[in-house]
Structures are given as structure tokens and as C-alpha cells.
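Query form — protein Probable dual-specificity RNA methyltransferase RlmN

QUESTION: What is the three-dimensional structure of this chain?
INPUT:
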Amino acid sequence: MAPPAPGELTFVAPRGAKRPPRHLADLSPGERREAVAAAGEKPFRARQLSQHYFSRFEHSPQQWTDIPAAAREKLAAELLPELMSVVRHISCDDDATRKTLWRLHDGTLVESVLMRYPGRVTMCISSQAGCGMNCPFCATGQAGLDRNLSTAEIVHQIVDGMRALRDGEVPGGPSRLSNIVFMGMGEPLANYKRVIGAIRRLTDPEPDGLGLSQRGITVSTVGLVPAMLRFADEGFTCRLAVSLHAPDDELRDTLVPVNTRWKVREVLDAAWEYAAKSGRRVSIEYALIRDINDQAWRADLLGRLLKGKRVHVNLIPLNPTPGSKWTASRPEDEAEFVRTLASHGVPVTVRDTRGQEIDGACGQLAATER
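ANSWER: The C-alpha cells for Probable dual-specificity RNA methyltransferase RlmN are given below.
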């Protein structure tokens, strides 16, 4: 294993933790052919398996009629093991928002959220079980980190969402995903290698992957600067979203503890590097918390930091979490924050919050069976 880059966070699996079983979605097309050959089958069977998984969403060997019956169970065991199962779906917004609780192979729980809007469908997916960033206003962060998800565990959330849309499980008729946001449980860039693998599986042309557009994928980060710079060199055209939440280091040290390691200006400089190399504007995520970070002077400071940059600000009214002492900003303070940012020429919108009733909105995912 290569040593981490200077300053990069590392993840150590808990003692006794079992690795997720190898899955087709963990492997590149070439690696799949090698795995199929090692199982004693002709390498072209790898493409057939990819077709069933990524294009037809057929996970049962009984449906693989183009593969000899004698080979199906063996190939399923080798390359398409059951990674995760649905514990429950919970819906709101007239069933247009659906949160799924997943149980992984080792009993770990994670959540994903599918949101259907007029003309588009967005899915918010998890990259870790829990989160180690410890942001005090986020339910996931308060739960701590359990483990990283494998590439296949990340990808399978989307594959199942696409199957559900195709099969009409979400009201509105058959559809396809428009946007994928790595904004569920976890810090995506702290699980760097597997998240990059997932992006490649999502965007590889069918049948090697799902054939989705990189421009429809957003990857969020609290500001892991070395990983952001590494991400800028991947050649992707995904959107980078920076969870900033405060323009000054004094407050951000408290709201986003990783800021004690990489300060606001370092984080923003890395974001501008990504914008320059990808050609995409950066999204600045900012949860508005009453009397904490919603003052007009902080809006003015944020506007001065972002003025003239390739950027868009997403203001997020704070979503309630159990036991939290904080709440969303007053409407008049939110309006003044928007006006102040706009006065600097910074594009800004207030996010349409979805899923509060089912604890499925930003910062609410906790993956419990209560």
C-alpha cells in the first residue's frame, strides 16, 4: 500500500472488521475479465455480467439466460455477491422523496435519499458509514465513523435507485437519475480511492458502467486540502461542493473541526484550483444557523472572499437534529444574508429543503433502526 500524501487523513479499519466481499463494481473492465478467467470461465462472460448489472439491473442468476446455467451460480458467487439489503424505505413529499436504510454485509447501517423533482431526479448517496469529521450541527458527524464503504457499496445505492425509477417504485412514471450528490453519510474525500472508483463506474460507458455524465455528479468535502488538490488532477468534470459554513477561521474551527488543520483560505485556494482545472464552478455549502453564522458582517466577509470567483453559494436553512441547541435562521436574517452576498456579485440560492419529516435532509442522516 502506498503511503498517504503529506497531510492526508488515513482510515484504519476497526480490529476484527470484515472487508466487503469483492464485487463486479469494485473492478475495472480488465480486472473483471481476469476474475472471470480465474473462475474457469471465458473472459467475455465479464461483459455479459456487466450488461446484466449495469444496464439491465438483473441481479438474480436465473435471469442471465445468455450464460450457461452451470456457470451462473459460480459467477454470481465470485463477482455479484449480495452486498447490502434494504431494511426499510420511508417516503414524504407525496412519495417524491424516499429515504432508504441499508444493512451492509457486516450489519453496518447506512442511508441514501432519492428525490424526484419536476424534470429531474437527484440521489444523495453515502460514502462512509458514519463520519469522522465531528461537525457539531450534523447528526452523522455526531455519530462518529464506523467504516469506509467499498466502491461497490457506493455504486449499488445508485444501481438500486435507477432500478426503482425504471420499475415505477417512485411515483411519476419510469425515469432515470439526473444528478448524484456525494452528500450523504461520510466525508467522500476521506474515502478517496473508493469514491474515485465509484465515479468511474458511474460514468464508464455501458455496459462497463452506468454511462452517467460526470457533469451530473457533485462531490462534497469539508475541506481536506491535499485530497482536493489530488481530485483536481483526476481530469473529472464533476462539481466540487465545499461545506464551508463560516467565512472566518475562529468560528469555522468550532463548526468544522478539520479547519484547525486547513484554514478557510487554504480550502478556498484548493477549490479555485479544482475550478480552474475542471472548468466547473465550485458550490459553497453554507448552513444558516440562527445567531451563530448568519450575521450580515459574515455575509459581507464571505462575499469578499468569493467575489469574482467561479462559484455559487448554496444557503441551507439548518435542519433540526435530535438534542441540537441550534436552529435555522430567522427569515429576515436569511434574506439579509442573501442580499449582502448578491451585492458582491456572488450567485446565491437558498436550497429547497427536502426530507425533514423523515430525517432525510442535509445533516440528518443517522442510520438507525428506531
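ADDITIONAL NOTE: Confidence is low (pLDDT under 50) at residues 1-8, 10-16.
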